[in-house]
Amino acid sequence: MKIDGTPYRSVWVDPIDGWSIRILDQTGLPWNLDILRLTSVREVAHAIRSMQVRGAPLIGAVAAYGMALSMRADTSADAMTATATALKATRPTAVNLAWAIDRMLTRLRSTRQADRLRVAYQEAALIADEDVAQNEAIGRHGMTLIAREAVRAGGRPINILTHCNAGWLATVDWGTALAPIYAAHDAGLPVHVWVDETRPRNQGAGLTAYELGKHGVPHTVIVDNAGGHLMQHGSVDLCIVGADRVTRTGDAANKIGTYLKALAAHDNGVPFWVAVPGTTIDWNVADGVRDIPIEERPATEVTTVTGRAMDGSVVTVRIAPSDSPAANPAFDVTPARLLTGLITERGICAATATGLLGLFPEQAPAQAG
Ligand code: MRU
């Protein structure tokens, strides 16, 4: 996707040295567009933990490049295992992280030690390229839902509510929840996006609004508590969100607050879609509320807010009494029964085991076993 006319991916190999990893520092957006250079696994782990990069598919791709960077230092099997364990511990909820690292491990363990460095970069690049292709396909499939609404709406803009940032900044390119919106907008369908600000880190106000603005998609930032009111008044045609992990039965873990939006959508008969690539489906988990680990992040993310002061400087201010404790569960799980369905790179399905296996039949033997 483009920023001010320049095409970007959210992670790439430095074209000059051919080995270091470049990322956009998402902690600086929307105020500063800084490109960071990562040269070691330690820097990759820090980038993921501190959310310089975030979003389930992107942290998977960046971790894959982290495995490749580690091969420059040590190609032994023991080092590989230690690096994988360290990277997996950075953020527990998004299954794409473990998926990408396990794929790298499988590939590297079956590769001669002398070839591991080269193969690691190849495999990480494949993971990144596949993510782009999958998200593009999600965009094509999801656009059909928006087109259907557009026919019903008779020419007025289709109002879509989204939570957090599941756009191109959260993936290698295109995004998941935003991919259908970009596809619809590019095809000339009139769309307008309600952007939940997404406290505590404001990925909606800071990142989704930034992306949509750079692409020229009409949007309005709302506080997280406004969605239910807008739905009651007929101002939301459909909701599309991403996910960090979807169980084999269709439960979806996503940014904290998603569940409340799904409840409001259910109460108001507003379709609620979750857009995910196959890499976000955890075929080993059936009960999302019970079994998906929910990341607990620092209390300071709740008790402070970062923004741009009127003099142009970026400042962090405290918004709660200094002696008040705060809790910060970063994700919640929306039970499958509240979802209208899932949008994947292979098409659209019900948020059920049968629906998912219809699109991913190769997972059926694993389920039976
Ligand atoms: O904590 P974050 O910003 O990494 O959370 C991101 C989300 O919740 C996204 O909706 C999810 O990862 C899907 S990204 C395509």
Tell me what the structure shows.
By secondary structure, the protein is α/β, with parallel strands linked by helices. The chain has helices spanning 41-49, 56-73, 77-88, 95-109, 116-153, 178-186, 203-215, 227-232, 258-268, 288-291, 300-303, 353-359, 364-368, and strands at 2-3, 6-7, 11-13, 21-24, 35-38, 158-162, 191-196, 219-222, 238-241, 245-247, 252-255, 272-275, 281-282, 304-308, 314-318, 331-334, 341-344, 347-349. The chain folds into two domains: 2-130, Four Helix Bundle (Hemerythrin (Met), subunit A) (Up-down Bundle), CATH 1.20.120.420; 152-368, Translation initiation factor eif-2b, domain 2 (Rossmann fold). The chain has 13 helices and 18 strands. Strands 8-7-6-9-12-17-18 form a seven-stranded mixed beta sheet, sandwiched between helices. Strand 14 (304-308) and strand 15 form a beta hairpin. The longest helix is centred in the middle third of the chain and has 38 residues, at 116-153. The chain is globular and about 65 Å long. The relative contact order is 0.11. Bound molecules: 5-S-methyl-1-O-phosphono-5-thio-D-ribulose. Residues 54-57, 94, 164, 166, 170-171, 175-176, 203, 242-244, 254-255, 330 line the site of 5-S-methyl-1-O-phosphono-5-thio-D-ribulose (MRU).
